[in-house]
Structure formats: structure tokens, C-alpha cells
Amino acid sequence: MRNYFSSDFKLGILGGGQLGKMMLYETRKFDIHTHVLDPSPEAPCRISCNYFEQGDLMDYDTVINFGRKVDVLTFEIEGVNTDALRQLEKEGIKTWPSADTLDKIQNKAIQKKFYKEKDIPTAEFEIFDNKEELLIAVEKGTLSLPFVWKSATGGYDGKGVAVIKTREDLDQITKGECIAESLVPFKNELAVIVARNPSGEIRTYPVVEMEFHPTANQVEYVICPARIEEKVAENARKLAEKVSEAFNHVGLLAVEMFQTENDEILVNEVAPRPHNSGHYSIEASFTNQFEQQVRAILDLPLGNTESKVGGIMVNLVGDKDYEGEVVYENIEKILRMDGVTPHIYGKKLTRPFRKMGHVTIVNKDLAEARRVAEEVKNSIKVISK
Amino acid sequence: MRNYFSSDFKLGILGGGQLGKMMLYETRKFDIHTHVLDPSPEAPCRISCNYFEQGDLMDYDTVINFGRKVDVLTFEIEGVNTDALRQLEKEGIKTWPSADTLDKIQNKAIQKKFYKEKDIPTAEFEIFDNKEELLIAVEKGTLSLPFVWKSATGGYDGKGVAVIKTREDLDQITKGECIAESLVPFKNELAVIVARNPSGEIRTYPVVEMEFHPTANQVEYVICPARIEEKVAENARKLAEKVSEAFNHVGLLAVEMFQTENDEILVNEVAPRPHNSGHYSIEASFTNQFEQQVRAILDLPLGNTESKVGGIMVNLVGDKDYEGEVVYENIEKILRMDGVTPHIYGKKLTRPFRKMGHVTIVNKDLAEARRVAEEVKNSIKVISK
């Protein structure tokens, strides 16, 4: 086997944000040599990688030249130039996940068609080449309100997605290719992270549950394990495995799902990388998702995905009323709470709703963790000087 | 309170070895700005600190100039210039642990006298200014064999310590100040890590047990929790607390102890920093020792010291028959075992018995962890190309 540990082997990472930063804790732990490419000179990955390069992830030549310096190439964000990845694969540089998988995922229309082909249950949908076609369908009545609009490309953190209930809601739709998805009434939003290595070894993490704010339509807590029936959890993990194998995926795949009112599981969408819904694993799991990603893409044996303790994750987003140099108000207060670990991503400036960090709450008793999580949520505030 | 998180606050660390490297995972997690001073250009801390300086930790001016650039100064190794620390304290730079504590600990003769003063149980001892005086005492018969010889200064990783059973054994004794300690027959070697912050908040970690090789006199496993009676464990934790308070210590203090055949607890020696006996905490504890050290020296609330799961640590030392560029033989094999995490410190060259890393084995069932730990020990080998 290739020797990765304290050797001259080089792992390249496209993207130097918080996901890359957390992956670097693991490459440092294993003393694996890393190169990182990111457009920002203040990327959180800048320190603690062995070599940092500033550059555009969508620029063919930049990615090619960066990739040729490494032995295995991966990414922490989907927005990378897949033509460059494909060329690097031709040149014998292992790129995991593959350009082929990424192409299928980058475009939501292609992703949805892929699910149909592979008999993967997903909400009914219709594809439109542009906004005009969609509006015509609404006029004709072949597409009836309400529905969920999703831009085929460029959607991220709630952008490029909207629930269309009224004609007025149609105004916010952007021009390009999109899908209209039927609105499924669901009990729960669930997610399962699947790890798969090139040898085909596959493991799923326990099902996590997104708990939403009672009124505001916003995830407040990611809870592991999900408070659902064992049978439903089994089905969700089986389905996630099926999705990973359908993509012939290598690395982590985060599969977001709906549990419908009659306990059907529908795949919503996937992310081919470590995922926000897996952050709890750093403190709660035997093998956290970032170490698992390193194991998977290097074709090392996969680690135990089960949990040591119950885990809950709360995102730290910039307060809506503040912009400027960040201050984490009451962080000492939450450090006093049991089993609480803040992760500060290292972004110097806060903006309304910007992802600045997250907090993990662990406890042998999940209900107690949930209670503490609420205290955390009510205490800490991301403001500016 | 001072704002440490994504702020202009600067933490200085004297020493850039593996203990510093593991502490930097925590400063990165909290986005605390760090400066590191180390004599080696290849120090494991070099990357992932914000600013690295190469220099001599025992040189007064080097330490002064480094220290003046930071707000709080700490160390990951005892061998630093305490006169410089004392001067920096005068200048208002917080140095934790204090120069005063470090002076008492750097010299084992002073350390032992301190225990006597403070009624801290420790093995009987006699102090000698030099080797000659000790030899005279042996001649006169006022000092009788067997005894444990310890050099007052410079002892490290078994160096500067010897059990003197015969006249021949006296040859290995070095010239300088030393102590002769009575040989205590003990059941167990135990250790307790105590954390204390400037506000006086104090917490002890569970007692760990050093399991020795049946024949070779060498620690094979550090086991948490120690397999001893609850009452004995309580006494050990109480005694460790007393030691920390006696030193008026700030930061972590690792207290190594003997459990005598009649269940007395005697203090052997202490280390005023994160310690090998606490490495298990990264995977097993709610708050690992490195995060706890950061919390303690910054006067943040201390974290929960209890364990999520049972933990066992095995040191990775260079095989006695190899010297050169390191190779970790069978590391994939141990990655296949349940709950196993290797930590590779990043030293490029191995030497016989050099500390190259460690492996943590965690499991909800400590006996199972112990079984896996033995498999790990029998599988992995630190060799050279």
C-alpha cells in the first residue's frame, strides 16, 4: 500500500473553507502532507496546510496546475472546474469524488433525472429550460401551485430554492434552468452520511434529524440519533447506501431526505463531501466525518460510524442586525455548560446569517443534550464590535 | 472579559513539539492567534500556529523578545528560561504556569523538599550536592542499597533515573546534585491530571493506570479509568488536587503517583503541562487535556473531565533496530480495528525508542479496549525505509 503517513505523498484539497479546516485537523493527526487551493487569501485553511495557493476553483488552468502537484485530489466545495478534474483523472491523478459524480450532482435537474433512472424515491418534479417555460406551464395550468422551485445550478445555503404558493412568489424565480418539485408534506427532514472507499467498502452514519424552529422555517438543531422509529432509521440508512452505490461514489456523501407522513423516505438532495449535518461527529462519533473522508479517499479501512454519546449541533450564524468585526457574545457562558464545544471558523467579519461557526453539545442522555442545546441557542450571539 | 476568539489576542507557546501540536488543534478550533518558539526548524508546531520563531528556549533574550510579542505565555516543555519568564511577569505578560511553580518543579530536590513542607506524602529521600557525597554516604553505610537515584535536574523520558541495587549500578550515576529515594514496593503506578485556572476553579481527570510489560520494566498501556477500588481513586484525585493547590498552580498539572501495597498514595513527581498520561482524553473525554489547558491558562470556565468511553493509550516509539526515514508498518491493519486512532507526530526520522506518536483505543467496554490495545501493540511497528 502507498505510505501516506509522514511520507512524501501529497493530498490536494480544492477549497479552503471551514470544511477543509476541519479536515486538516485529521491530516495533521496522521501527518499527511496537504496542498490547498482557495480564492481567498484569508481562507480558514491557510495555516495548517503544508502548501497554500490562492486561485480560482472554477478556472481550468489554475485547477490543472494545482492538481498536477499532488497525488490525490479532493474538494470541500462543489463549485470546482470538473473539466479540469476529468483531465487530471486522465493524467493518472486520483480525484475523489470523481468528476463524473460531481457533474451529476452540480446540476439539480440531472441529479433528479438520475434518481428516476435508478429507482431512488424522490419528490415528483418537472424540468424547465428557463423561467419563461415555467411561467407558460403555470399559465396553461399544466403546472399548478403550490410547488417548490429549485434553480438547476448555483443553489447554496437556501439560495436558489423557494416555495411558490402564490403568483407573487413567482417574481423571485431566477431566469435559468430549473425544476418544479411537488410539495411533499413531511414529518421529518433527515440526513445520512455515507462513506465509501475505492475498494467498495461502505459505511453509513446514524440518521440525524433536523429540528426546525416552530415558527421561522429554519433548522435550529441537528440531532443524532434522530428521534424516529428504528425501522424508519434502517430504511433511511439502506436508501442512503443505495444512493452512494448508484453514484459509484468515493468519499463522503451526505444524503438529505424527507420522512413523509406515511413514513416513506424520499431523497431530497445530496452533497459529495463532509456536511454540516455531520459536524456533531467530531465530538460524538468513534470516527468523525473528516477523518472518515480522509480514510475513504485514500482507500484506507473505514472507521466505526457509531456514536459514543448523543450529539446535537447548533449553527453559529451572524446576527441579522450586525455587520463588521465579529464578537462572540456570551461564549464564556456556554463554555460553562456541560459537554459544549464551540467551533469558531475564523472569519474575521460577520454579516447577517453568515455561517461563522457551530456548537456541538454531547451527553450520554440525548434529552439532556437537547435541553443544553436550547440554553446554548438562547445564550450565544454572533455580533460585531 | 478579554475576547480571545477571532480577535487580536495572542497566545505564546514555548516549545513546538507534539504537545504543542496537539494544543494547536484546540487554538485553531477556537480561532485563537498563536506564536510558537522552538529550536528546530522542523518542529511539529511549525505549521498551524499563526507565527513561528526558531530559537533557544533556554536563552534569556530569545525568550524575552518572543514573550513581549504576546498577551499570555505558556510552555509545552519544562526546559525554558525561568528568569525570562519572571521578567515577563514583571512586565505584565501573564505567564502560566508561573516561573515560581516551574522553578520548584524543574529541580527534583526542591520538588521533594516542597512535598515535605506541604505534608504531601512522597517516598523517603535524601539529597546530595554531588555524586561524591552520595558515594561517601554509601561507604559510611548511612545510605543503604537498594535505592532509586534521581538527578536533580535534566531527567527526562527515563534519563536521569536509575534503581541502584548493587555497587556496580553506582557507575551509571552522573556527577551533579541528586536525590536517593527509598524503593517503595507498589501495586500500581497511577496518574491524575489536575486543571486549575487563575480564578481558582479546579477539576481533576479520572485516575489513569500505567500497565507495565510483565518482564521488561516499561509502560505498555495507559488505561482510563484505572482498574482500582473507587476509594483509592477518590484518594488519588483528592491528593492530586492538594498538590495543585500547594503549588498554587495555573494550567494542567500531571501528578504521577504510587499506590503502595497497603493502598497508601505517594506522589512520585509532577509535570506542569499536558502529559502523555492524558493523551487518551482526545478521544475518550468530554474535554480533552489540550482544550482544558487552553481554558485554564486563559481563565475560561473549565470543561467536564469525565469520560465518554473507556480509553487506552499505547505509545509509538521507534523500533530498537531501526534508524532513518520513518515508516509505520501495519498502520492500515490497526485502522481496521474498532475505535483505534493513531496520532503521528510528524518526526521524519526514527531512532531506537524515539517517541514518534501514540495510538488511542476507545470502547464502551474497557476490557474490550484492552484486548484491542494488545492487538495494536502486536501489529504496528515503527521502522525505517
UniProtKB/TrEMBL annotation, chains A, B:
It catalyses: 5-amino-1-(5-phospho-beta-D-ribosyl)imidazole + hydrogencarbonate + ATP = 5-carboxyamino-1-(5-phospho-D-ribosyl)imidazole + ADP + phosphate + 2 H(+). Keywords: ATP-binding, Decarboxylase, Ligase, Lyase, Nucleotide-binding, Purine biosynthesis. Its EC number is 6.3.4.18. It comes from the Bacteria. Residues 112-298 form the ATP-grasp domain. Coiled coil: none annotated. Pathway: Purine metabolism; IMP biosynthesis via de novo pathway; 5-amino-1-(5-phospho-D-ribosyl)imidazole-4-carboxylate from 5-amino-1-(5-phospho-D-ribosyl)imidazole (N5-CAIR route): step 1/2. One of its GO terms (cellular component) is cytosol. GO terms for molecular function: 5-(carboxyamino)imidazole ribonucleotide synthase activity; ATP binding; metal ion binding; phosphoribosylaminoimidazole carboxylase activity. GO terms for biological process: 'de novo' IMP biosynthetic process. ATP binds at residues 108, 150, 181-184, 189, 268-269. Belongs to the PurK/PurT family. NCBIfam families: PRK06019.1-5, purK. Homodimer. HAMAP family: PurK. Catalyzes the ATP-dependent conversion of 5-aminoimidazole ribonucleotide (AIR) and HCO(3)(-) to N5-carboxyaminoimidazole ribonucleotide (N5-CAIR). This is N5-carboxyaminoimidazole ribonucleotide synthase. It comes from Salegentibacter flavus. The gene is purK.
